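Exam prep: given the inputs below (a chain plus pyridoxal-5'-phosphate), describe the expected output before reading on.
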Amino acid sequence: MEERLKPMDAEQLRESAHRMVDFIADYYKSIESFPVLSQVEPGYLRKLLPDSAPDHPESLQQVLEDVQAKILPGVTHWQSPNYFAYYPSNSSIAGFMGEMLSAGLNIVGFSWITSPAATELEIIVLDWLAKLLNLPDDFLSTGPGGGVIQGTASEAVLVVLLAARDKFLSRIGKSSLDKLVVYSSDQTHSALQKACQIGGIYPENCRVLKTDASTNYALSPDLLNEVISQDISTGLVPFLLCATVGTTSSTAVDPLPALATVAKRNGMWFHIDAAYAGSACICPEYRPYIDGVEEADSFNMNAHKWFLTNFDCSALWIKDRKALIQALSTNPEFLKNKASQANMVVDYRDWQIPLGRRFRSLKLWMVLRLYGVQNLQQYIRNHIELARQFEDLVIQDPRFEVVTPRIFSLVCFRLLSPDNDGDKGNKLNRDLLDTVNSTGKIFISHTVSSLGYIHLTLCSWGSIDRRETC
Ligand SMILES: *Cc1c(COP(=O)(O)O)cnc(C)c1O
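Solution:
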C-alpha cells in the first residue's frame, strides 16, 4: 500500500533525532578508532551503493548501518584529536546545538521580514564579536558600517572586491574596468585570485608581490609603494590592497599600519584577511597583530576555524555598508515590503551573493554565551601553548629544523637533508609526510616555500582541547 506523506510529526522527530544524537555521540566516543585520514581509493563508494534511489522508504536503522559501514570509512576525521592538518575547523557542543536549532527552525532569512530575529541577532552578535576583537567603532552596526556572516572567507573577499570595484567604477566610469589593479603578496590565499576572476579584474592587473624569508614572508610596504608608482605612471588605477594576518603557508603577518598608510595615500580600499588568526586577537596579548585595522575598510575572520563555531561561519565587517549594498542589491517586486521600503531595517540579501541565507548567528551566539569570553581566550592560549611545546620538541631534535618563526598555533618544520641538498631534502620530507599520513594515526599537511622547499605543518589542536574542556 502506498504510504501517505505526513507533515513533520513531532514525536517521530523526537525519536529519530534522539537516535541521531546517540549516533553522533557514539561517533565522538570512538573517533580515535578510525584512521584519521580516510584510506579509501577514489570511486570506492559507487561500488557500495545502488545505482538509483529507492522507490520505497527505508528505515533510519538501515541508513545508519550504511553510514557506519560505508560512509565513515570515507570520512577524514577533522574532529579527531589526531588531526593536525591545514587549519583547525573546530566544533563544539555549543556550535553543534546552534547548528541543530538553525536546522530545526529552517528559516531563510534573506530580508528582515523573513525572520526579524535572524537579522537582528546577526547584527548584535557581530557587534559583540567586533568589541571582543577591539575593532574600531566604524565597524559596528551603529555607524555607517556593520558586520555580516558569510559562508567562507572566499565569499567575504569576493563581496569586498565587488564593493570596492563598483565604488571605483562609479567614479572613473564603467569602461575603466581594465585599469583597476589589485595588490597582494605571493602568500595571500588563492581566494583573492578567484575573486578577481569572478569580478572581471584583468589578470594582468593582479599584482602578486614577492615575499621572502628575510621578512618572514610578510608583504613589504616599500615594494608595494614602488609597484603602485609604476602602475600609476602607466595610467592604471590601484583600487584594492589585500593584507593577511596569518597566511596559509606560514602564518605570516603583513605589517598593517605601514600598508594602511600606502593604501590611504593612494585612495585604495584596504581589506584584511585574518581568516585563521583573527580568533587569537580576542586575547589582549595577540591583539597587536591586528593593530592597523583602524585604517582598514574591511576585516574578515572565520569563526568556523578557530572559534569553536561549527562550519560555516565567516565574519566580515565593513566600514561603508553602502558600498556593499550598492554592488549587490536588487529590488524585485516580490521582495518589496514596508520595513525594507522605509529603510528601517537591514536586509542581508544585499550584503552577499545568494538570496537565501541560514540562521548562522545562532551558533555563534551560543558559542559566545555557553563558553564566555574568558574560556574562549583560555582555549586559544592553550592551543598556542601546545604548538609551542611541539616547536620545542622539534628544536631539540637535530634531525629537524623549524622553518619560520611560530606566531600562533601553526608550526612549520622539516627534516634536514644530511648534505644540504635541496632536492634530496624535499624527497625526504615528502616521504615522511606520506609515511606518517598512511599510518592513519595522525594527519599533517605540507606546503612549499617561495624558495621551493617543502615543509610540513602542524596545526589544529582544537580537538585535543575539546576532549579536555567540554
Ligand atoms: C582558510 C583561509 C582562507 C579561506 O577560507 P574559506 O573560508 O575556506 O574560504 C582564506 N584566507 C586565509 C588567511 C585562510 O586562513
